[in-house]
C-alpha cells in the first residue's frame, strides 16, 4: 500500500531479474529509508541496492516469495525471525544512521503536532471524514463514519490511554529499551528463499527508525492473525477470536509466545556477551513481555490513523473517492480499532505499574 513494485526480466536471460520500486507513501521518510536499505543490503539482511532516485529504486530481485500469515506461526521460522529482529534492533551501523533522531516513533504519533499520524488525521482528514455526504449514502460508510466521529469526541481519553502505555519508559535509565526498529513487520515484508530453507530477507524499511524494542515483536504477534492475500475487497482478513485466544494463552510458560521471548533474549544476551545468559534472561523476561504487550496496543492505534492519512481522503465527497476509501483503508482502520478495544481488556490487567530501576539495589 505504500509503494508499487515491478519485476523486470531480461529478454535474453529470463533468470536475470531486477525490482523497480516506486515510492508512494505519504507517511514515511524515503531519504532515511534509502540509507537503511543500503546498509541492510550490504549485510545480507535485505536486498542489495542497484540504483536509487527520490522517486524510485532499482533493487536486487530475491529468488523467493512473501511469507504467509500461517508461516509466521511456524516455530522454526518464528525462532529465526526473533534472531533477525534482535540483530537488527541492536545493529550499531543502523543505530548510527538514526543517531540524529532523538524522538521515538511511537511517541511522535501524538507528540509531533506536525508529522505525527494522530495530528495529521486531525488536521488533514477529520473534518472531511465526518462531513462526507457520500459516506452517509453507503450503509457501511455511515457505520464507520459514525464510529470514528464518536471515538474522536473522546480524543482526550484516547490520547491519555496512549500516553499511559509508554509513561513508565525512561530511556535515560534503560537506554537499551530504545532500538532501531523496522516498524512495519508483517507477512509481506519478509521474503523466504525458494531454494534455501529458512533463508529469510527483510524488505520495506520506509517506516524504520528509533522505537521501543518490543515493537517489532508486537507487530509479529499481531500479523499472525491478519491475512492480506485476499483478492476481493476489503483485501484483508483479521481473525479476532483466534488472536484474542492467543493473547490469553501468552501468559502461560509453555506458550509459543514464551518461546519467541526466549529466542529474542537469548540472541540479545549473545550480542552483549553477558557472562550469565540464563540469569540475564530470567531478569529481563517479565520486563520484555510487558514492553511487547504495551507495543501491541500502541501499534493497533497507530495503524488506524495511518489508514486515514494514506487513503485518498481529499476525494471523500465524490462517489468514486468514497468507494475507494471504503474499499480498504476505512474498513481496515475500523477493524483495527475494534481489535484494540478487544485486546485492551486482555492486556491491561497484566501490565506492570513501574519498571525496575537498574540503579536500585538488587536490580540488574
Structural account:
There is one protein chain. The protein is α+β, with helices and mostly antiparallel strands and 364 residues long. It has one domain: Alpha-Beta Complex (Aminoglycoside 3'-phosphotransferase, Chain: A, domain 2), CATH 3.90.1200. Helices cover 51% and strands 12% of the residues. It has 14 helices and eleven strands. The strands form four sheets. Strands 1-2-4-3 form a four-stranded antiparallel beta sheet, with helices on one face. A hairpin with a 6-residue loop joins strand 7 and strand 8. Helix 2 runs parallel beside helix 11, helix 5 runs parallel beside helix 12 and helix 11 crosses helix 12. The longest helix is centred in the last third of the chain and has 34 residues. It is globular and about 65 Å long. The C terminus is likely disordered.
Radius of gyration: 21 Å
By CATH, the topology is Aminoglycoside 3'-phosphotransferase, Chain: A, domain 2
Secondary-structure element order, N to C: EEHEEEHHHHHHHEEEEHEEHHHHH
Please give the CATH class. Answer: Alpha Beta
Protein name: Choline kinase
GO molecular function: choline kinase activity; ethanolamine kinase activity
GO cellular component, one term: cytoplasm
Family: Belongs to the choline/ethanolamine kinase family.
Amino acid at each position: 500500500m505504500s509503494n508499487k513494485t515491478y519485476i523486470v526480466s531480461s529478454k535474453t536471460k529470463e533468470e536475470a531479474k531486477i525490482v523497480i520500486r516506486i515510492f508512494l507513501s505519504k507517511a514515511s521518510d524515503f531519504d532515511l529509508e534509502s540509507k537503511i536499505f543500503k546498509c541492510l543490503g550490504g549485510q545480507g539482511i535485505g536486498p542489495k541496492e542497484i540504483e536509487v532516485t527520490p522517486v524510485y529504486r532499482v533493487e536486487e530481485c530475491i529468488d523467493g516469495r512473501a511469507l504467509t500469515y500461517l508461516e509466521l506461526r511456524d516455530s522454526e521460522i518464528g525462532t529465526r525471525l526473533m534472531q533477525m529482529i534482535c540483530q537488527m534492533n541492536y545493529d550499531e551501523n543502523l543505530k548510527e544512521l538514526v543517531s540524529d533522531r532523538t524522538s521515538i516513533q511511537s511517541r511522535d504519533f501524538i507528540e509531533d503536532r506536525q508529522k505525527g499520524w494522530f495530528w495529521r488525521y486531525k488536521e488533514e482528514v477529520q473534518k472531511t471524514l465526518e462531513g462526507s455526504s457520500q459516506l452517509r449514502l453507503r450503509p457501511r460508510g455511515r457505520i464507520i463514519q459514525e464510529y470514528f466521529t464518536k471515538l474522536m469526541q473522546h480524543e482526550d481519553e484516547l490520547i491519555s490511554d496512549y500516553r499511559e502505555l509508554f509513561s513508565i519508559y525512561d530511556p535515560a535509565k534503560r537506554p537499551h529499551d530504545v532500538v532501531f526498529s523496522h516498524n512495519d513487520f508483517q507477512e509481506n515484508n519478509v521474503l523466504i528463499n525458494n531454494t534455501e530453507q529458512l533463508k529469510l530477507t527483510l524488505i520495506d524499511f520506509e517506516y524504520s527508525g528509533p522505537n521501543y524494542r518490543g515493537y517489532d515483536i508486537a507487530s509479529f504477534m499481531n500479523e499472525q492473525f491478519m491475512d492480506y492475500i485476499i483478492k476481493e475487497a476489503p483485501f484483508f482478513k483479521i481473525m479476532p477470536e483466534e488472536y484474542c485466544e492467543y493473547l490469553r494463552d501468552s501468559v502461560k510458560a509453555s506458550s509459543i509466545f514464551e518461546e519467541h521471548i526466549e529466542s529474542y533474549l537469548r540472541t540479545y544476551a549473545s550480542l552483549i556477551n553477558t557472562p550469565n545468559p540464563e540469569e540475564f534472561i530470567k531478569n529481563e523476561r517479565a520486563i520484555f513481555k510487558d514492553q511487547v504487550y504495551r507495543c501491541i496496543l500502541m501499534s493497533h492505534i497507530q495503524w488506524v490513523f495511518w489508514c486515514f492519512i494514506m487513503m485518498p481522503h481529499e476525494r471523500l465527497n465524490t462517489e468514486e473517492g468514497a468507494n475507494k476509501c471504503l474499499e480498504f483503508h476505512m474498513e481496515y482502520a475500523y477493524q483495527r480499532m475494534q481489535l484494540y478495544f478487544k485486546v485492551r481488556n486482555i492486556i491491561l490487567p497484566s501490565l506492570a505499574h513501574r519498571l525496575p530501576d537498574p540503579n536500585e539495589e538488587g536490580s540488574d
